[in-house]
Write a structure and sequence with these properties.
Pfam families: WD40. One of its GO terms (biological process) is mitotic cell cycle. Keywords: Repeat, WD repeat. One of its GO terms (molecular function) is gamma-tubulin binding. By secondary structure, the protein is mainly β. It is about 0% helix and about 55% strand. The protein has a domain of about 130 residues: 7 Propeller (Methylamine Dehydrogenase, Chain H), CATH 2.130.10.10. The strands form seven sheets. Strands 4-5-6-7 form a four-stranded antiparallel beta sheet, with no helix packed on it. The chain is globular, with a radius of gyration of 18 Å.
């Protein structure tokens, strides 16, 4: 399944459970939910089989939990003035617990208990930055919460409570607002960030040190960031400069660069295969098969247009 959203949430079926895609057929639309406002971030509630959308720009910002099977939407409103900038979702199948973390413009990280068989609600707010919180990521084991701010700083804190610990940053002249945070799915201690000036940083979050940095990796803001689910050393970034760039974080070098037709707003790697989905500023979603990465041209297998 692939979900994409702007003014509406669209859920499509991609051919092949292993992440393969057919060249002759476009993805089939499974469900569509209109949104009152603009989607700023998406997540998957794997326990309740719902798509989670952070929505901004309506009467009040909110989280929407969309159930395609039931064709229903559960909403969690955010306080007035708290714009939803980003979200991260974590599910613990053994304990049957689900959590959403929302980075908000008032500087708060709001934790939402979205566990099955209960009404989703905000259960805790953390103020860790003093300025707008612009990015958030829950670690793969659910023990840590990483957040980034408009000042360019990234901090870690225990998920179930505790003070923030700052990660090493850039020189003040290079600092810019954090746009995205992403944990590696294969190495739980590895965390990456991107910012408004096109810089990328990668940390060992356990050792609290940089693994590598790529200053000026893109010309402008970088909102798309994803680790490979097949190669622990592969990081992929997509920017407003319409460039998709592949990085070897072990050896601190660029591997490949692919130009597309418009700025990139988001990236998502298929958890069980080799597909990469790229959201675009023009409303399109491009789907790439990365097994063709070493070919002269890595072209999109399919394109989905949404509004």
């Amino acid at each position: 399944m692939l979900a994409t959203a702007l003014r509406s949430l669209i859920l499509v079926e991609c051919e092949g459970s292993d992440g393969s895609a057919g060249h002759d057929a476009s993805p089939a639309i499974v469900a569509e939910f209109p949104l009152e406002g603009l989607a700023t971030s998406l997540g998957w509630d794997v326990l309740s089989q719902r798509i989670v959308v952070a929505v901004s720009g309506a009467a009040s910002d909110r989280l929407c939990f969309c159930d395609a099977g039931e064709e229903s939407v559960e909403e969690v409103p955010l306080p007035a003035g708290a714009q939803a900038m980003a979200l991260s979702f974590f599910a613990d199948p053994e304990r049957r617990k689900s959590w959403a973390a929302v980075a908000c413009s008032d500087g708060a990280l709001r934790l939402v208990d979205a566990s099955p068989m209960r009404t989703a609600s905000v259960v805790r707010s953390c103020y860790s930055h003093g300025v707008a919180a612009t990015a958030v990521a829950i670690s793969r084991d659910g023990k840590s919460l990483a957040s980034g701010s408009s000042s360019g700083h990234v901090v870690l804190q225990p998920f179930h409570g505790g003070g923030p610990t700052p990660l090493p940053g850039l020189l003040e002249a290079d600092e810019a607002g954090i746009e995205a945070l992403c944990y590696s799915s294969l190495r739980q201690e590895i965390l990456a960030s991107s910012d408004q000036l096109g810089n990328l940083q990668v940390w060992d979050a356990q050792a609290l040190r940089h693994s590598c940095r790529f200053l000026g990796a893109h010309r402008g803001s970088v909102r798309g960031l994803s680790f490979s689910t097949q190669n622990s050393d592969l990081l992929i970034s997509g920017g407003d400069d319409a460039e998709l760039i592949f990085w070897d974080v072990k050896n601190s070098k660029q591997i490949q660069q692919v130009s597309v037709e418009s700025g990139i707003t988001s990236l998502s790697y298929h958890s069980g295969g080799y597909l990469l989905a790229s959201g675009m500023e023009d409303g399109a979603v491009l789907i790439f098969d990365l097994r063709g990465l070493q070919e002269a041209a890595c072209g999109a297998l399919a394109t989905l247009h949404c509004t």
